[in-house]
Amino acid sequence: MIEEVYSKSFASDNHAGAHPAVIEAMSAANTGDAPAYGDDRWTGALDERMRAEFGENAATLVVLNGTGANMLSLSIMLGRRYEAIICPETAHIATHETGASERVLGVKLVTVPTPDGKLTPSDITARLGGRGNISEVQPRVVSISEVTELGTCYTPEEIAALAATAHDNGLLLHVDGARLANAAAFLGCSLRALTTDAGVDVLSFGGSKNGAALGEAVVVLRPDLVEAGPYLRRQTLQLASKMRFVSAQLSALLTDDLWRRNAEHANAMTRRLADGVAGLPGLDVTWAVESNAVFAALPAGAIPELQSRYLFHVWDASRGIVRWMTAFDTAPEDVDIFIADIRQSVKRHSG
Amino acid sequence: MIEEVYSKSFASDNHAGAHPAVIEAMSAANTGDAPAYGDDRWTGALDERMRAEFGENAATLVVLNGTGANMLSLSIMLGRRYEAIICPETAHIATHETGASERVLGVKLVTVPTPDGKLTPSDITARLGGRGNISEVQPRVVSISEVTELGTCYTPEEIAALAATAHDNGLLLHVDGARLANAAAFLGCSLRALTTDAGVDVLSFGGSKNGAALGEAVVVLRPDLVEAGPYLRRQTLQLASKMRFVSAQLSALLTDDLWRRNAEHANAMTRRLADGVAGLPGLDVTWAVESNAVFAALPAGAIPELQSRYLFHVWDASRGIVRWMTAFDTAPEDVDIFIADIRQSVKRHSG
Amino acid sequence: MIEEVYSKSFASDNHAGAHPAVIEAMSAANTGDAPAYGDDRWTGALDERMRAEFGENAATLVVLNGTGANMLSLSIMLGRRYEAIICPETAHIATHETGASERVLGVKLVTVPTPDGKLTPSDITARLGGRGNISEVQPRVVSISEVTELGTCYTPEEIAALAATAHDNGLLLHVDGARLANAAAFLGCSLRALTTDAGVDVLSFGGSKNGAALGEAVVVLRPDLVEAGPYLRRQTLQLASKMRFVSAQLSALLTDDLWRRNAEHANAMTRRLADGVAGLPGLDVTWAVESNAVFAALPAGAIPELQSRYLFHVWDASRGIVRWMTAFDTAPEDVDIFIADIRQSVKRHSG
Amino acid sequence: MIEEVYSKSFASDNHAGAHPAVIEAMSAANTGDAPAYGDDRWTGALDERMRAEFGENAATLVVLNGTGANMLSLSIMLGRRYEAIICPETAHIATHETGASERVLGVKLVTVPTPDGKLTPSDITARLGGRGNISEVQPRVVSISEVTELGTCYTPEEIAALAATAHDNGLLLHVDGARLANAAAFLGCSLRALTTDAGVDVLSFGGSKNGAALGEAVVVLRPDLVEAGPYLRRQTLQLASKMRFVSAQLSALLTDDLWRRNAEHANAMTRRLADGVAGLPGLDVTWAVESNAVFAALPAGAIPELQSRYLFHVWDASRGIVRWMTAFDTAPEDVDIFIADIRQSVKRHSG
């Protein structure tokens, strides 16, 4: 039990609980009968808030988890059964969804090695050589993550460049935005600047990593893709019958920019942690710290020692890289204690 | 908006809100960090409660909705890719899951016409004629619903007979128990009597129709099928990261037999409704009233008239059959007002 | 070994060998190097012959077997992943392709009971009640067989009526024409009259049951569906590398109307058989004899007795119905001997 | 039309026609009625010949093309729906089957970069790090090609080492043997030495690239995998109704070691070609020449010049690598003329 053994989890932002406003919103939505499957007023209100955030064309589909959001997004975008998806080798859809893309969508992922988890326009064009060759899959969708799985962020300009390259080549752009809020907070921009305004076609918008108890959304930004969504949501097992209890959570996060405050806090705690271990001999921060995750290479002995007291993941065992994450509710004091323990442990095991 | 236009919904037990104990349980689970994906103490506690309910071999997988519970259950049971599932023509998996069985599982459903939604042992054996014929799919699973989609119930003996026939023929038995609680309440038996003790192999256990906000469970009763479950849960998009918020809901329903009280109340309200319209000229109750749904054939004009004031579904437009459902929180007074309105409307339109 | 034990097979038209002209055509195509995958002159020549037969818009895809032809046809026609196919309960795609529709296409078949294997326009419209209901699959394709699996034929007018109903409702019409030649021969019309001119969108055109050794074709009659075909052919495992050896066979069947002569002969032999057993007490011909198959209900004892000397299938064991088929090379003398044996056997076992 | 424009194709061994003995065998199999779907004496005879070649446990499934052979092989080997296949990045199943693995099997390919198209035991063990992690696919099958797509060969010892590593880790080994004959010819060993004796579990055995008109085989070497084969063959669209016409071709290749003579000739022609261009300034042979393909990097200008007279594929446009192949019927004179043309063209365009 984490509560008893560990002081604090730095394993993932989904180890945190829910923001109190989220629980309150669910409780407030519990007012007797309401139509099921999204024909309720809480879902209606969420639709409006999402349009305010993502633009008038944004059609929102409330879903149940991040993998579901991605599979629904991609299934809305895919047409012919020989189409493929271009994505970074580190993409969540490629590495941590137990093959759902291949099994549920039946689609091949054309994966691209990247130094920092970020795709470039030339990564896309370099994968179009098999166009028109009937023996090869035909790319139709480009999928990127914002924040990436390595904690890095695309700027709005970088996303716009990817969208332009995609569209110029007849492709669509998907964003896995499980941590889109953290990117917007880091970049100091709106959610819309990273998506609608940059030319994104469909996105997965994360709730649970931002403070929801359970709930994500798919946002369809191209009107011609809207119609299929509700059918595909049911088919991909993402339709909640009492949807109000999910919609209310997401609305709570969108109220008074709670999403941004939550993300800013999580990012600040990671910044504090990264700063606290910066320059420590024997510890190398692996990728730029641009969200609520820091990846670091540690001396071999330090990892099990720290893991005996703190929950966190080893990202790459062969290179000794670990991932530390913070959440909307991480306390600065906990970060400081963690920093102190890291410093001691790394010192003990390096040289 | 239902709240303003309609007095009360009789459309579905998922139009109800959540039981207050369920919301409280979620709130109580919001105590800071906890491991994700089910390694938390609320899910551990649920596991124990479920074993108390379904027996020591019961392995519980918390999932997100009813279709997800069914798809995960079936995918745990299916092996070879030419296997098929025998189920009633009216099965939810066959009619109301937007083809998820075919798309997500890639499996053919061998559907059986039934008078009352209930499969019989001879329905099974009659579908085994193609065994060994390589041009035909090979049945591997029998799937029944308890309560059925027509509101009827199998007795424990009937389920045991189906399980015996299935097992004698090398098949497995699945129960879609979205309303298993209502069946146990109607039959006055334990959940275990209808499942484990009757020989069921895997079941979908409904939470949301019994008073949860969101959450169901798959219960695997055969030890050799347990290992695959967690992988398939992630792949079928049913894994909640902050699982404690779902587990806590289901535990609340299992505490002090809240599930049974909720189901008994819903059943009693349907019984009250059925009794209140019994014998009314022009109204025929279609199937035996054995749970929280009553189906009735009404005079054509009465349906739109009643639907202008009450939410409920037309089950079979060609035969004028409607479905009325009650829930854990349906008030007797609302039922009585509904009965009075039905009586007036039917009278006006019959004869 | 059939050659030694049995005098003659009446089991299926695919028990026959290949027409000599087919073998000769393969031999003649064996002239050294030729481009693979269909860029050869034999495939080019077939394309032209097929356009002559089916009209200028006919795009031909040579494929490898009947199930492959059906799966490719349907995959060309299907778009969104929640679409469904309406077909008769007896359709080959529903009964004898080991669930390929569900597994390879991931699609639900909405099956319709029919008295004679033939769908009617009202069968189609009656299956459209779930349109717009996101919990139900959405029909997109109607698939019929010409000749049907029960040996009956649609007239050109009947097919045109189905096509009109399909198109009026936004659906496409597929014809499984594994025995299209037999239908055209029976009806005394062109292949085109039954397909292009009747409004068919895509068809499977049978070669092997008409005298080919191996080979079928998919014919796409809607220009907007042509582009996807070659990719889907490879993906559905239907692309022959040395395609000339298949194309040459089909061209041989199309030369000097060999296909029609083969079909007419097979039909005539079945007619002879049906006439020879007509009126025999104890034997009931089950469906109208309109091609190269006759179905008959026999006294129980006669079936194993006849099967000890002749190869044929029991179609429906519970009703004692057998299927007898003839082929392009069935000899009248063999039919006459078979008739005599049937008459004796039926007499012995009836009454 | 290749016959008129080009002297000779060096594009692929499937540009060749069929060996005369193959056509004769088909013709000889055309002797009236025979049971369909493989219950004929030609298929029975092939079964025996295959057992003589691959051992008493070898169960042969005749199939229709190479992609079909691979998909059937893999579908026989795969069990749970979250399993994955480890294969080289250059594998045919990964690059040239239009995503059939993902679409038809629903499986993820875990692809491994290799210098020469050959997997090593440590490539396998390095991909097992996600074992037991429910978010990752679980490798179940290792698939290699013999000959590889780069024209290189595994020795029997190398295959045995891969099989041992696979089995030690609970995996199965598949060999895509579209050109297995060429490997056996190059290595001077039996087919069995490369498969059964090396511990291979299932293999695709190529016919068309060895001189058949159309036809391949899947050979199942593990008894516990045999039963599923026939069902899966029909479902994966690989069942020929008049199977004798395919079986007879494969039997012809197995008679008097015709397969070996065909492969030896093709290999010798490639050896002649490689020797003829060896040491030519400006031309670099890319990978070891161990079968009937030579890959070479050419000066940019030489490629289109040669392609204006000869059919061959550009393998890697960015690096100027072309692939030249020979077949069972390639004439030495044609090779010599080609060599002369290559030498001239390369000389003209290099420096």
Automatic annotation (TrEMBL), chains A, B, C, D:
The name this protein goes by in its record: Threonine aldolase
Keyword annotations of the record: Pyridoxal phosphate
Pfam families (UniProt xref): Beta_elim_lyase
Domain of life of the native organism: Bacteria
Species lineage: Bacteria, Bacillati, Actinomycetota, Actinomycetes, Streptosporangiales
Listed SUPFAM superfamilies: PLP-dependent transferases (SSF53383)
InterPro entries, per the entry: ArAA_b-elim_lyase/Thr_aldolase, PyrdxlP-dep_Trfase, PyrdxlP-dep_Trfase_major, PyrdxlP-dep_Trfase_small
Coiled-coil spans in chain: none
Cofactor: pyridoxal 5'-phosphate
Domain Aromatic amino acid beta-eliminating lyase/threonine aldolase as annotated: residue spans: 10-295
